[in-house]
Amino acid sequence: MEKKFSEFYLMIQELFEPDFSSDFRFTESWSSMQSLIVVSAIDEHYDILISYDELNKADTLEELYKLIVVKST
Q: Is residue 62 within 8 Å of 36, Cβ to Cβ?
């Protein structure tokens, strides 16, 4: 995979307010709209589609990134 976790982290961080943490689903700004934005950003930057269920299973960015890596292979 071309993009490293640090690039992924920064891309996702830009989608959230300053209270962002790696436990992204537990930030105050997390909503169903944020879910759609994250899924769209992953598709745009990585050309990988993840389902809402897959997104919900990931509690941290590390888990979400690992899912993207698995789906890219």
A: no
